[in-house]
From TrEMBL:
Organism: Tribonema minus
UniProt keyword Transferase present: yes
Any single GO BP term: cysteine metabolic process
Presence of the UniProt keyword Transferase in the record: yes
Protein name as it appears in the record: cysteine desulfurase
Needed co-factor(s): pyridoxal 5'-phosphate
Keyword terms: Pyridoxal phosphate, Transferase
Length: 446
């Protein structure tokens, strides 16, 4: 087996608000990019992890080790380099399986990311199982990647999309969701933790209700897998997708979890090398999952890097990360909500434990355009995002073209949130004036 650079070995399950170093203070040094100034005299404060996370040194070293020591194709050679790369690639699959508690390693399919994973299901399972008159149920908070593929499928197959709406506090209206399910429902596709509202949806209850009417359920876990313990067997889902770059891993890699009996029933959606069993001039037979869905040379380095990211997060412990993320969620909300400015905060307020939302907050200010605010906040060294966060339909339903979003991860601290609030206050004071909340065209801010 390939020896990968070691994840942190010190005890990272540390005190936070109750005393001692916080988790963020302890692990911050593991992320080289954070040790810099955004501008002269302005230390970088990175609060855009919902878009992509930063990478620990152990992941970077793993990528370097692959390219310098055993770069080779996988599953295709008997020489030592190919054997080493194949072992590391397949070891990454085992790590992901354990990380989300899948029953079988064959249930983990590597993809370019969550977007490709959702499209894989839409084309392979969807085209074979969705027919005219069938219904697909989504929520209004879905990311474009979990909406557009189903729009395309519905158009191809003559199906209908239905959308579960929000409660007044912008959490999911479960009563409305349940009312949408019926004998025509064939699929539910929902986000686990919203990238715009921050709320964490009751996926197990949603899955049970979907299965009760004979429907399948796919879950977008891009924001939950990095920040909380995700157990696919406890959730009871049929498919679950996530992207590596949001969980301390490289870009260009993600995974699809699927129940093995479902994956075996699904036809390939791309043809090429490795996904075949035998090829004849007039037909081909296909490999078992997951190889059936991994045509061509895969993203080898990225998959191995994802395995290193899983090692890193596992060494810290997802329970410790989740507890710290909830603490940051409460602190971020409370600090912004306490400002005297006229702000519109999106998503439900955190409960006492903070376990009903992720540590991100999208909002608008009456006194300034979100894009302008983001620009001036950046001048203070604080990186946040402005735009619709790939949730145009959601923002439109909320009466906003976009919003500004601050999102924390395990390497952030309360001091980072404080720096953001100071920068926000200064930017609001500088910009002043009146403006519609989130007004303007955010089309260039994708």
């Amino acid at each position: 087996m390939v020896a990968s650079p070691s994840p942190p070995t010190s005890d990272l399950k540390l005190e936070n608000s109750s005393g001692g170093l916080s988790l963020g203070e302890k692990v911050r040094g593991d992320f080289p990019i954070l040790n810099q100034e955004a501008y002269p005299g302005k230390p970088l404060v990175y609060l855009d992890s919902a878009a992509t996370s930063q990478k620990p040194a152990s992941v970077i070293a793993t990528l370097d080790q692959y390219y310098t020591e055993y770069n080779s194709n996988v599953h295709r050679g008997a020489h030592s380099l190919s054997i080493r790369s194949t072992e590391a690639y397949e070891a990454a699959r085992d790590k992901v399986r354990t990380f989300i508690n899948a029953e079988d390693r064959k249930e983990i399919v590597f993809t370019r990311g969550a977007t490709e994973a959702i499209n894989l299901v839409a084309y392979s399972w969807g085209d074979a199982n969705i027919n005219a008159g069938d219904e697909i149920v989504l929520t209004v908070m879905e990311h474009h990647s979990n909406m557009v593929p189903w729009q395309l499928l519905a158009a191809r197959r003559g199906a209908t999309l239905k959308f579960a709406r929000l409660n007044a506090d912008m959490s999911l209206d479960m009563d409305h969701y349940l009312s949408l399910l019926g004998p025509r429902t064939k699929l539910v596709a929902c986000v686990h933790a919203s990238n715009a509202l921050g709320c964490i949806n009751p996926v197990r209850a949603m899955a049970d209700a979907a299965h009760a009417v004979g429907a399948r359920i796919l879950v977008d876990a891009c924001q939950s897998v990095p920040t909380m313990r995700v157990d696919v067997q406890q959730l009871g889902v049929d498919w679950l997708v996530a992207s590596g770059h949001k969980m301390c891993g490289p870009t260009g890699i993600g995974f699809l979890y699927g129940r093995l009996e479902l994956l075996r029933s699904m036809a390939p959606w791309q043809g090429g090398g490795e996904m075949i069993d035998e090829v004849f001039f007039d037909h081909s037979t296909f490999a078992e999952p997951p190889s059936r869905f991994e045509a061509g040379t895969p993203a080898i380095a990225q998959a191995i890097g994802l395995g290193a990211a899983v090692d890193y997060l596992s060494a810290i412990g997802m329970d410790a990360i989740e507890a710290y993320e909830h603490e940051l969620a409460v602190y971020l909300w409370d600090r912004v909500a306490a400002l005297p400015a006229e702000l519109t905060l999106y998503g439900p307020p955190p409960n006492a434990a903070g376990d009903n939302r992720n540590p991100l907050l999208a909002f608008n200010a009456r006194a300034a355009h979100a894009h302008d605010l983001s620009f001036f906040i950046d001048q203070e060294g604080v990186a946040v995002r402005a735009g619709h966060h790939c949730t145009q339909a959601l923002h439109r339903s909320l009466g906003a073209a976009g919003s500004i979003r601050a999102s924390c991860y395990l390497y952030n601290t309360r001091a980072d949130v404080d720096a953001f609030v100071v920068a926000l206050e200064a930017s609001l004071a500088f910009l002043g004036g009146e403006g519609g909340a989130g007004g303007g065209d955010f089309g260039l801010l994708l």
